[in-house]
Sequence to fold (653 residues):
Amino acid sequence: MTEQVLSVADLVVEFPLGGGQTVHAVSGVSFDVRDGETLGILGESGCGKSTVGRAVMQLPRPTAGSVRLLGDELTEYAGRRLRRQRSPMQMIFQDPVSSLNPRRKVKDLVAEGPRMRGRSVSDEEIRSMLSAVGLDPDVVWDRRPHELSGGQCQRLCIARALMLDPRMLICDEPVSSLDVSVQAQILNLLEDTKERHRLSMIFIAHDLAVVKNISDRIMVMYLGKVCEVVPADRLAEHALHPYSLLLIDSVPEAHLPDADLEPEHAAERAGELPSPIDPPSGCRFRTRCPLATERCAVEEPEMREAAPDHFVACHHVEL
Amino acid sequence: MTNQTATPLLEVNDLRTVLHTPRGDLAAVDGVSFRLGRGETLGIVGESGSGKSVLGRTVMGLHTTGPTKTVTGQVLFAGRDVQQLDRRALRELWGAEIGMVFQDPMTALNPVKRVGVHLTETLRKHRGLDRKQAKARAIELLDLVGIPDPRRRIDQFPHEMSGGMRQRVVIAMALANEPALLIADEPTTALDVTVQRQILDLLARLQKEMGMAIILISHNLGVVAGRADRVAVMYGGRISETAPASTLFETPQHPYTEALLEAIPRLEEPPHRRLAAINGAPPDMVRPPEGCRFAARCRHARNDCDQELPELVPAVHDAAHHFACFHPVNQGGR
Fold:
């Protein structure tokens, strides 16, 4: 049995809207991240994938549920204690430029984390970290974030995270704002970094091929719930949940135009994402699901094991 | 597919769009030529800064010579030179003959106008319909682009709709007057994959029904792959390679196209495959290199690549396949 770095159980995140209404952003999500593993979280906008990442970091603290990092229950801590306990976990965001203080220089940005925790950092240490993420210290040393490209800023964010010696990185859409050629550089860097520092990773993204490339297991989310957890190498051919299949079918790769597409069919697929304020009863995907029956409206599907490490929440998938 | 008859719908000859920036003149589009037949789809792919959006806007006549930029070359739309048209003639052209769809539907819609007004405005102006006729046609159009319950939707404001629905409204606006050419600049980039698929399917269906030509501009090779008859890859303000879509993806000749294809993670490949990243960054277009713009990042570059700018020339065995490279990668098969 592999050691679990992170263990999340029944995570719920709700945001009050006023007028007695509530946004059900995440509704009972459980998962583990094993030592050295990359867990991909896949889903479209509004599915709660970023909220899960933030709730794990206690940003903000989840409404309910448990988040155990290396055996420590993070939801019990606050303030300075929380900051210390969660420091083995570092986060990387989608927009690298806006997540950096525009007035600080690269050399200070890299050392910021340890210095805030009262540790002094030598120039030598900063230089070697910059080199490790593929930035030339002599070139970027005195630059500010706006003088760097998007890819360079993302490298800088990775360097900042690594300065704190993390056990785990949470990457929230780290490559979505980058060009294809730079995206490949950053994905390779994350993969190398993970190996060199023996990290575990949560990789949150909406791009199926990107998530598959970097993950060991993939958790597919829809409207605040987990539909399926599938080993990455099984995603393309053995995914089972109707929503996973819809996602795979939508990937624009060598699709020939659907000339015979019936207008009714198009309208059916147009089925819109229901509101997280008033999510559908039972299975949340049922309003867009081709397999949906009455049972789906009444009874919420349980996670069932389809194969080792492969779980799916659907009444109609045959196992 | 490609029908290169006597007068193509659109003919672009040696187009240059030079932006005058504080740092100096920036040739965003630097010598681009292509033709587009009626009913044909041209995909234009490139990374940020490649000049693909500026090209689309110059073709439309949104960029013309003025204090901040200089446009040279020719854009012939159905025989008329778009760059020579005055403001009034351009307004007649836009909406009526050339439709456009941009990346962010929210900025294309007026937040304080109801959805219906966006459509009836153009119908009344260009088609001379009265209020009642225009409304009926607007409802038809919303139905055409797959918006459920159009009678109710027509009175809604843009913020009451989802991103996918808004983009459908923008498409309905662009198509209201059945233009001969639709320019779609990153039409699905702001949308989720399942919605993206719906919008691309919708464009394909409407194109078939209306017989319009489409210029589909995207950074995503996958989006363009199955949708375009012909694809042009742009780098540093120039077309580096253009060919029928299947040819381009199966036997790319330009090292940049090849490198792009290798840099993309693919769903059918096993996890943890190392991606072939393209090192370095695109050239500074204020001071572009003298030789090939891609030479500095190219795996196949040799000495002569820095000397001279390669021209876009047809391949020896395939007149439909053009590329600008002295040392192409797939010559004579692999």
